[in-house]
Design a protein that fits this description.
Layout: E1 3-8, H1 13-24, E2 28-34, H2 37-46, E3 54-58, H3 64-76, E4 83-86, H4 107-129, E5 136-140, H5 164-167, H6 186-212, E6 215-219, H7 235-249, H8 255-267, E7 276-280, E8 286-288, H9 298-311
Parallel strand pairs: 1-2, 1-4, 2-3, 4-5, 5-6, 6-7
Antiparallel strand pairs: 7-8
The structure holds NADPH dihydro-nicotinamide-adenine-dinucleotide phosphate.
NADPH dihydro-nicotinamide-adenine-dinucleotide phosphate binds near residues 11, 15 and 61.
Function: Phototransformation of protochlorophyllide (Pchlide) to chlorophyllide (Chlide).
Protein name: NADPH-protochlorophyllide oxidoreductase
Subcellular location: Plastid, Chloroplast
């Protein structure tokens, strides 16, 4: 039978390119979890995705109610859940003030981490009961949260500190909107959220891989300098960033190539190892990459997991 892959944020960029790459193989049905139904449907059509190869289901990760509703709606489709890809993200590098999700969490961590944390926890049962030979839960990471790399050392650096902000709910009122309790910084909030994504993947692996057989993975697909992720950046940055990545850092990848990479993590029979953070070298060959000290700290992963459980109402 065809596999079914759920991809969040499949209305643009990496998520759309991955949905297209999978649908084109004829071996996958893609469930696109998107906050803007019309945009997603136009994007799928414009990408040339065949009708019947995908289903769009509304999902707004900035609302825990919407996440729960999405899970209920997915179950109503009566399709198996074989792979889940947590891909959607917001990046607000120029925001002067924090903005907040429906539940009052700072937006970048709320959407990129907490919304996905609840989604992944809820869908783990569905993944576990699938009879697909290789079930996978993938959380898209990033190099920018990884302070053991050049890109991860561009300030402001990711740093979750002692998690005091996360512990108090990131509401910007009784506590700071930042995980480490510091001043709001949109670029740092994004990087912190990506560290949470990578820690969450590893904690899932430690807690559930043995019991469920699900493969948990994260990845850095390369710098996809053309996606909507940079939409809130200043115009000069948006103009110069793609050529800079292409010719100077040489980390640039097209959306199509990045989509193929993520599609490999979804379906390639050689990428079944769990607990891995995948990257690709200049010849587009995948390898198991090292995470920074903070992004691979098991104590921190456990604390982030426990605090996140409380915030999303699982504990
Ligand atoms: P895009 O902005 O193109 O895509 C992000 C997607 O997330 C969009 O579909 C967007 O929906 C969706 N989204 C945003 N907020 C919400 C929400 N509240 N609920 C549901 N969906 C939402 O960026 P990319 O494709 O670049 O990013 C995809 C992933 O790749 C992210 O996890 C990012 O961190 C990661 N990444 C990107 C890199 C890059 O260089 N671009 C490098 C490394 C990692 P909508 O279309 O409605 O806005």
């Amino acid at each position: 039978r065809k596999g079914t892959a759920i991809i969040t944020g499949a209305s643009s960029g990496l998520g759309l390119a991955t949905a297209k790459a999978l649908a084109e193989t004829g071996r996958w049905h893609v469930v696109m979890g998107c906050r803007d139904f019309l945009k997603a449907s136009r994007a799928a059509k414009a990408a040339g995705m065949e009708k019947g190869s995908y289903t769009i289901v509304h999902l707004d990760l900035a609302s825990l109610d919407s996440v729960r509703q999405f899970v209920a709606n997915v179950r109503r489709l009566e399709m198996p859940v074989d792979v889940v890809v947590c891909n959607a993200a917001v990046y607000q590098p120029t925001a002067k003030q924090p903005s907040f999700t429906a539940d009052g969490f700072e937006m970048s961590v709320g959407v990129n981490h907490l919304g996905h944390f609840l989604l992944a926890r809820e869908l783990l049962a569905d993944l576990t009961s699938s009879d697909y030979p290789s079930k996978r839960l993938i959380i898209v990471g990033s190099i920018t949260g990884n302070t053991n790399t050049l890109a991860g050392n561009v300030p402001p650096k990711a740093n979750l500190g002692d998690l005091r902000g996360l512990a108090s709910g990131l509401d910007g009122v009784s506590s700071s909107a930042m995980i480490d309790g510091g001043e709001f910084d949109g670029a740092k909030a994004y990087k912190d959220s990506k560290v949470c994504n990578m820690l969450t993947m590893q904690e899932f692996h430690r807690r559930y891989h043995g019991e469920t057989g699900v493969t948990f993975a994260s990845l850095y697909p390369g710098c996809i300098a053309t996606t909507g992720l940079f939409r809130e950046h200043v115009p000069l940055f948006r103009l110069l960033f793609p050529p800079f990545q292409k010719y100077i850092t040489k980390g640039y990848v097209s959306e199509e190539e990045a989509g193929k990479r993520l599609a490999q993590v979804v379906s390639d029979p050689s990428l079944t190892k769990s607990g891995v953070y995948w990257s690709w070298n200049n010849n587009s060959a995948s390898f198991e990459n090292q995470l920074s000290e903070e992004a691979s700290d098991p104590e921190k992963a456990k604390k982030v997991w426990e605090l996140s459980e409380k915030l999303v109402g699982l504990a």
